[in-house]
Design a protein that fits this description.
heterodimer; A: alpha/beta; Rossmann fold; CBS-domain; 6-stranded mixed β-sheet; 4-stranded antiparallel β-sheet; about 40% helix; about 25% strand; B: mainly alpha; MetI-like fold; 28 helices; disordered C terminus; binds adenosine-5'-triphosphate; binds magnesium ion
């Protein structure tokens, strides 16, 4: 696992909705020194939208939060940007606790360091594409010429050149979300929140937008918190995934680790139907130790099975597996690849 | 032993018993009082009355004559407000009617003439075209041409001037209050009961104090119009802002908007379609106030109607009344078109100033050209009297001939209704001793809303009693009650028809829309002409005015029943008739009750207007107070009407809520 400097973290964050949530949580924690369970929260007439969440998002990482509807993803991400005041906990952005920041500081941080894309686009209907994208800059008081120049830049980046004068309702859903993306990028944010940005789009457009998103990220290298309830989407995009259930973060790991070492039955169930070849790396299924006999070639241990499957399958002999330094650390044969492709437990 | 099942619940039996007792009491209260030597049963003795109205009058007097805030007196304050309001009004009036003059009396020199009739017609037509289509342009153009053709131009422009001022002020004020209510929950909590009260208090209740504070004249009329037309805008604003998707608001926070940017750059523009509905409401309510406002000095068409009514000048009244209707319809269609105007399409990049404002510039051009040409050809400036028509004599003859030829029939209808419905109900209500009546109302409150509602009913009806207005209140109740019964008896079946039959629904919808566009006074004119003054005329006018909600809510209630329930009924073999009686009407009952509630509110607000045709109720009390500028009397009587309205409103709302809970329906429109 790569070690990146932590950009954004939350420590023991709680968000309970309902009357008297603050007092409830404080009382419980003071009285028993322990955390209230889900049943207890519900019995008090509260909603435990986020419970004791701990995550760390590394610089330049695509961090995906995933879970079923109502599991608290949106609430957690809104706590991270302090759109919602958490009931308890700490939000550390570049090492500073955002919950202690004054209103003015928050405005400054949001203006210059944060960007957000919304599930239903949240475009302003009375403004054109250009005006929508330039809006965050306008709010900061930037003069018309430079802000429009910058807006045109990002509009071109998301592939909407020529539509600057259109109004949002004249665009398709995919195009509208491109505007939303362009708008959130206009201020060159350091951290980029995307709350189910592609969920409102139909499947074909969604794939196209995911590709577009990966292309953008390969250029921009932002720190990203991406929410989805679609595991396919998560494994396509994520460096790491946090799985949420009933407000709690159950496991945070790479897609591969989620499949290989699910923390509990819930995660296992979640990952069961995933095409493993898309998730697992060669390292996960190789036979470790120096290979015997003649090899058909070499593959890298960090490659996804999907990427090397054709080559390995076509050859009669196994391939040598090399690590990042080029040293041979194991071998992989046709059988192992086929097992993975059809989802059969490997025979060892 | 088998328990015998009663056909009625014990509760219903109790209430039937109470009703029977009431009937007996109403018949015998006179003798009873004599026998017991207790005249207080029928009439509250003087000593027990509160001198509230005198105290209010004294307080208002003190306010106007002595109240002082240190730096300035209360009178300075009201004068200041009056001055502020007068400025834009004078400007608008100068533009539309008088022109701009320097000097006074004979030495007056006209600096600028008012806009010519041709220019005004062109401008409204251009607005119609801009908002919607050529058809609308022609329609509103013709409406305004009508005003010129039939000699109503001057008055119509005076009315238009006050509307042109009242509407922006009402919209702006309502918007600001609505935004404040949205931003600060405590302000909203404060505002809601005030708005509730403002919408139940009939206009007349505040006419008197306004008259007292601001004096007779257009400014008072403007203030009254604002008070009347603003509340819906406040409500709609708060609702529309709440309706903005939360993601849009979050977007605003995420880009770091200040709270001002948030309000004006994000929330208000996003809520625009909803807000435009409010603007339309303000326009319609302002028009509704036209005649009433003329009682405290607004002038214009309303004044013409009022004086004609007082002189029983049928032709003149009808002409001015029709002119108001024409003006109202034109303005309504225009503002509706603006509400529904499709949002802009993308353009071809930046345009020149001229290209961006084609309408404004053309209109300006026409105004200048007609103004200049008007100097040469006066007929362009002001519509020539020689080319005017008057329909007054025509109406006069028509009504006369109806009255001559159908006198017996009309009279027979009137007498029949009076003898068999109006007079008996009136006798009955006046016969019920007040302690019994208050007891009944309080019991009803207890029944529907426990002690809170019971206490409310008790206190409010006691207020009316101790202010010595019991008899007037009973007359009010009788007139309103009969009218509401008739309106419901007509409106509910019509509403059912509208919901059952698509074509009938369209026709009825159109008629009801038009009925609602008309200012309340207009109904009075034809009725008075046919049936002369008196309770019967008042009743018909009230029924006409208050009919719309009964129809509309009934139709809506039936249409919004879950289709699955109706299918279930059909599948289990209900006939159409059974379907209606067993399924649709019971399910639509809560909605129908709300419609009846609205009907009562409208009826109560209309009662005060019918005072003009000589009814003897609380409305008359207010009207008399108005003519005598007796603030205390006016306020107390007005508040009494409001209290009747509040009692009815709360009782029915509680009843509807119970019905809804029983049917397992969720409250509609609550969110
Ligand atoms: N303002 C609120 N008041 C009360 N409860 C809330 C509020 N917002 C969210 N909740 C509750 O908190 C829980 C988590 O909601 P959240 O919107 O975070 O879920 P989510 O994972 O984003 O779901 P989705 O995929 O549907 O967007 C849900 O049970 C929801 O009903
Ligand atoms: Mg969500």
């Amino acid at each position: 696992m790569q070690q990146r400097p932590v950009k954004l973290a939350c420590r023991d964050v709680w968000k309970l909705f309902g009357e008297g949530a603050d007092r409830f949580l404080a009382d419980r924690r003071a009285a028993r020194g322990m955390v209230p369970g889900l049943a207890e929260i519900q019995a008090a007439g509260l909603v435990g939208a986020v419970r004791a969440a701990n995550i760390e998002v590394g610089e330049g990482e695509i961090f995906v939060i995933m879970g079923l509807s109502g599991s608290g993803k949106s609430t957690l991400v809104r706590c991270l940007s302090r759109l919602i005041q958490p009931t308890a906990g700490e939000i550390l952005f570049e090492g500073r606790d955002l919950l202690r920041a004054s209103e003015r500081e928050m405005v400054r941080i949001r203006r210059h360091k944060m960007g957000m894309v919304f599930q239903h686009f949240a475009l302003l209907p009375h403004l054109t594409v250009l005006q929508n994208v330039a809006f965050p800059l306008e709010v900061q008081g930037i003069a018309r010429a430079p802000r429009e120049a910058r807006a045109r830049e990002v509009i071109e980046l998301v592939g909407l050149k020529g539509r600057e004068a259109y109004y949002p309702r004249e665009l398709s859903g995919g195009q509208q979300q491109r505007v939303g993306i362009a708008r959130s990028l206009a201020v060159e944010p350091e951290i980029w929140f995307l709350d189910e940005p592609f969920s409102a789009l139909d499947p074909l457009i969604r794939r196209e937008m995911q590709d577009e998103f990966l292309r953008l990220q390969s250029v921009l290298r932002k720190t990203i918190v991406f929410i989805t309830h679609d595991f396919d989407e998560a494994i396509r995009l994520a460096d790491r995934i946090a799985i949420m259930k009933d407000g709690a973060v159950i496991q945070v790991d790479t897609p591969e680790r989620l499949v290989l070492a699910p923390a509990d039955a819930y995660v296992a169930e979640f990952t069961k139907h995933i095409p493993r070849a898309k998730v697992l790396t060669v390292r996960a299924i190789m036979r470790a130790g120096p290979p015997a006999g003649e090899m058909a070639g070499e593959v890298s241990a960090a490659d996804r099975i999907e990427a090397v499957a054709d080559r390995v399958e076509a050859a009669d002999r196994p391939f040598a597996v090399t690590d990042a330094g080029g040293e041979v650390i194991g071998s992989i044969d046709r059988c192992a690849v086929i097992d993975t492709l059809i989802g059969r437990e490997p025979r060892r | 032993m088998k328990a015998r099942t009663l056909p009625l619940s014990p509760l219903a039996v109790t209430w039937l018993g109470l009703a029977a007792a009431t009937a007996v009491l109403a018949q015998t209260s006179g003798e009873l009082a004599k026998a017991l030597d207790a005249r207080w049963l029928t009439k509250l003795p003087r000593e027990l009355r509160l001198p509230l109205k005198d105290e209010i009058s004294a307080f208002m007097k003190w306010l106007v004559e002595e109240a002082n805030f240190g730096l300035f007196t209360f009178t300075d304050l009201t004068r200041g407000i009056a001055w502020l309001l007068a400025q834009p009004y004078e400007l608008a009036k100068g533009l539309l009617v008088g022109g701009f003059v320097q000097g006074l009396g004979d030495e007056a020199v006209q600096l600028l003439p008012p806009l010519s009739w041709a220019a005004v017609i062109f401008v409204v037509a251009a607005l119609g075209h801009y908002a919607k289509s050529l058809r609308l342009a022609v329609f509103v153009g013709l409406c305004f041409l009508y005003l010129a053709l039939f000699g109503q131009w001057q008055s119509a422009m005076v009315t238009l001037a006050s509307i042109l001022i009242a509407v922006p002020l009402g919209v702006a004020g309502g918007l600001l209050l609505g935004i404040a209510g949205y931003r600060w929950p405590w302000f909203d909590r404060l505002l809601t009961p005030v708005l509730d009260l403002m919408q139940t208090v009939p206009v007349f209740a505040y006419l008197v104090p306004i008259l007292f504070l601001f004096g007779f004249g257009p400014v008072s009329a403007l203030v009254a119009t604002l008070v009347y037309a603003m509340p819906p805008m406040v409500r709609i604003t708060t609702l529309a802002l709440r309706g903005v998707p939360s993601e849009v608001r979050e977007f605003g926070v995420m880009v770091g908007c200040t709270s001002r940017q948030m309000t004006w750059r994000i929330m208000v523009p996003s809520a625009m379609p909803g807000l435009m509905v409010g603007v339309n409401q303000v326009i319609m309510l302002s028009l509704n106030m036209v005649i009433i406002a003329s009682m405290i000095g607004a002038g214009g068409l309303g004044y013409d109607v009022l004086t004609s009514l007082r002189r029983l000048d049928i032709g003149g009244g009808l002409e001015a009344g029709v002119a108001i209707v024409v003006l109202a319809i034109a303005l309504d269609r225009l503002s509706q078109a603006f509400v529904k105007r499709p949002p802009p399409e993308h353009g071809e990049g930046p345009l020149s100033f001229v290209m961006r404002h084609p309408y404004a510039l053309t209109a300006l051009g026409v105004i200048l050209v007609t103004g200049l040409l008007g100097l040469v050809w006066p007929f362009l400036q002001s519509y020539p009297a020689a080319a005017q028509f008057t329909t007054g004599p025509f109406w006069e003859n028509l009504v006369r001939s109806i009255n001559v030829n159908f006198f017996d029939q009309l009279e027979a209808v009137k007498t029949f209704m009076l003898l068999n419905l109006l007079i008996p109900v009136k006798r009955f209500l006046l016969g019920v001793p007040w302690p019994w009546f208050i007891l009944l109302v309080t019991l009803a409150g207890w029944q529907l809303g426990r002690w809170k509602l019971a206490l409310l009913c008790l206190l409010l009806s006691a207020f009316i009693l101790v202010n010595g207005l019991w008899e007037d209140a009973m007359v009010t109740l009788y007139l309103c009650g009969v009218s509401v019964l008739i309106a419901a008896a007509i409106g509910i079946p019509v509403g059912v028809l509208a919901a059952q039959n698509a074509r009938a629904g369209r026709v009825i919808g159109g008629v009801i829309d038009t009925l609602q566009t008309l200012p309340s006074f207009v109904y009075l004119i034809p009725v008075v002409m046919l049936f002369r003054v008196g309770d019967f005329s008042a009743m018909i006018a009230v029924v006409l005015y208050a009919l719309a909600p009964a129809v509309r809510y009934t139709a809506h209630g039936i249409r919004s029943i879950d289709p699955q329930l109706i299918e279930a009924g059909t599948v289990s073999g209900c006939t159409r008739w059974q379907l209606l009686w067993r399924i649709k009407l019971p399910l639509a009952l809560p909605e129908i009750m709300l419609g009846v509630n609205q009907t009562i509110m409208l009826a109560l607000s209309m009662l005060v207007i019918t005072a003009l045709v000589g009814t003897r109720d609380l409305g008359q009390e207010v009207y008399v107070a108005l003519t005598k500028a007796d603030t205390g009397r006016g306020i107390v009587a007005g508040v009494s009407v409001a209290f009747i309205a509040i009692i009815a409103d709360r009782l029915i709302a509680a009843g509807a809520a119970r019905a809804r809970a029983r049917l397992g329906l969720v409250a509609q429109g609550a969110h």
